[in-house]
Amino acid sequence: MIDGRSARPRYPGSRPDLKPERHRLMDIIATLAAELGLKSTAVQAAVDLIDEGNTIPFIARYRKEATGGMDDVALRALDDRLTYLRNLEQRKEDVILLIGAQGKLTPELEAEIRAATQLQRVEDLYKPYRKKRQTRAQKAREAGLEPLANMIIMQIAPKDAQTPLDIAAAYVTPEAAEAGYDTPEKALAGAQDIVAETVAEDAENAADLRSFTEGSGEIVSVAVDAAEKTPYEPYYDFSEPARKIPNHRVLAIDRGEREGKLRVRVGVDTEAAVARLGSRWPRRQGPFAPVLDAAIADGYKRLMAPSLERELRAKLTVRAQTEAIKVFGKNLESLLSARPVRGARVIALDPGYRTGCKVAVLDETGKLLDHGVVYPTPPRRGVAGTKRELARLVKRYGINTIVIGNGTASRETEEVVSEFIAEQEPELRYTIVNEAGASVYSASELASQEYPDLDVTTRGAMSLGRRLQDPLAELVKIPPQSIGVGQYQHDLDQAELARTLGHVVEDVVNRVGVDVNTASASLLGYVSGITPTVARNIVAYREEHGAFTDRKQLKEVPKLGPKAYEQCAGFLRIAGGKNPLDATAVHPESYEVAMGVLDRAGVTAKDLAAGGIPDIDRRVGSVSALAGELGCGLMTLFDIIDELKKPGRDPRDDAPEVVFSRAALSIDDLQPGMELTGTVRNVVDFGAFVDVGVHQDGLVHISKLARRFVKHPSDVVAVGDTVKVWVEKVDRERGKISLTMVEGK
């Protein structure tokens, strides 16, 4: 990839110059178009653009004509599926070569492999030919017992045969005896081992029993120590159909098993499974009938069942993790898209007990004006001194907002702040912000590079204040996994989590746009086409040469080549530069078109600086006709016109406003039926956590989000939403608050 964060592997058929493989690529294009409900031409164009090294944000914004207007979500889905299908095709080729090298590839088997639409099917077909450790069946084959096994499978016996043992006696050869099959009983058992493995490794049998296991199996868990008190007590004697178990319970059970608190298995009706497997074979008759029945049962119990159980557990875990990552991504997108609080002059308080409450004073731009420590909480209880210091800072720096972290001692600090406002500064406002990740950032190498002269605690307080002023600019400094807007994030596939969340940050950053003259290297590193190294080079260039005045200057930044410039230019804004279009999302490649639009509207580029041209639609007349005149795609032209209406508009301004408080509530103040306004802090599979102004977030269970059936909480609420709730139940002893968004429910 252009941004250097995730290099894209190349597969056969992924590049136009690999002509022998184009037929396979065309199959993939057709598959993608059918699966995603898109035109083949648009899919082909998107694939070509991706393969050429274009980033998803760039394609989504500036190549709409080619892709039919696919947004970043659709393009990410296409990209992920493209990777899977290319991996599938590559695996098919590998398996065909491997089986062919053994001299066992038939035209029928090759056709089956090529027709497979899932990796699992390919692996099932390959399983009988996979090199493996010496098995009982392999040992029996080497001893010459396969003909006997074939007789059992085919139910064929000599006419004069009396019993299976009589038939098996003929196979007790010197070679067989040397291998340990020195009696008819042992020879027959060896042949049964071959039959059992044949049954278990048959691709159709595996697919059928997999379906049976997934459809009828239950996840069963019991306590390792039933007397021990743990968070996993709901699962001490638990069972639930695998097809119905929700993702959060899968993750909870997995964690309990990993911590040694639970024993987990898949419960399956073994008799029904064996009967189902047996029904797939011809009706048994003759002397070998009971032998085949026993081999089928052994094949299932010894070879298939353990494998199918592992597969089902793994499939449930992957499903649960995939959905958890998806929810995490949605929450992160909402958090990063939160509305900046512009014009906020802030006192940021990072609460604590013994070490006191760290204070950072910031101006509207986030510049540190002052810092220190106050002690409003035990053991010092310096409430009066804290109020005096707050009054001094408010007066000296013209403060209008106080920000309090939601961690340790937050409740006590909030009470003091609330009292101070009521007593001395009634116009002052305050809010609680999520501390998640602040300590990670403050102790990071990045923080020490940015503020080498400040201690860790002051950096942490600054981070809290800045995430109110501009959530996106501050939160990009924190590893997405540490931001705290998901569930079980430490149990998830960390590489996949980092990849997905990195894409979310990238999409939001590019959707918003970045001021190249004020952005940190952390923020610049998420801009389309910009690697972390180039981001640092941009900052260094800015520090050496002063503020950028023209987008063309970006070409002078070391290691920012033509391709990177193409990818990033439209997302980097220059306010007050030589060319007013540089402050907009119009890409330099479209400046000529934009000037044509302005000319048709009877205005100049300088008019953009006055706030845009809100009536430009009326001024330009028919957009379709204008597109023809200017030789521009219709979708691109609409984007240009929208941008000229309100240049550099921040889409985050459409997000809900931050809810501020002037008086603190305690959990003791809450009563059932009380109506409150709160902010959604996290969305999980089973509901949403809402901040209602007390130290503990309340839970709105999924069943209490709406009067209608809700498939997932994210269908109703998002992180940052302002919602009206009613208190349903308060458990003061455990510090738990149950809320509802449906009055009377």
Describe the structure.
It is built from 30 helices and 15 strands. By secondary structure, it is α/β, with parallel strands linked by helices. The protein folds into 5 domains: 19-129, RuvA domain 2-like (Arc Repressor Mutant, subunit A, Orthogonal Bundle); 158-321, Tex N-terminal region-like (Orthogonal Bundle), CATH 1.10.3500; 346-469, YqgF/RNase H-like domain (Nucleotidyltransferase, domain 5, 2-Layer Sandwich), CATH 3.30.420.140; 539-654, DNA polymerase, domain 1, CATH 1.10.150.310; 667-740, OB fold (Dihydrolipoamide Acetyltransferase, E2P) (Beta Barrel), CATH 2.40.50. The strands form 4 sheets. A 5-stranded mixed sheet has the order 6-5-4-7-8, with helices on both faces. The protein has a 5-stranded mixed beta barrel with strand order 11-12-13-15-14. The protein has a 3-stranded antiparallel sheet with strand order 2-1-3. Strand 12 and strand 13 (698-701) form a beta hairpin. Helix 1 (22-36) crosses helix 2 (40-51) and helix 17 (383-397) crosses helix 18. The chain is globular. Residues 1-20 have low confidence and may be disordered.
Give a summary of the structure in a few sentences.
With 745 residues, the protein is α/β, with parallel strands linked by helices. 47% of the residues lie in helices and 11% in strands.
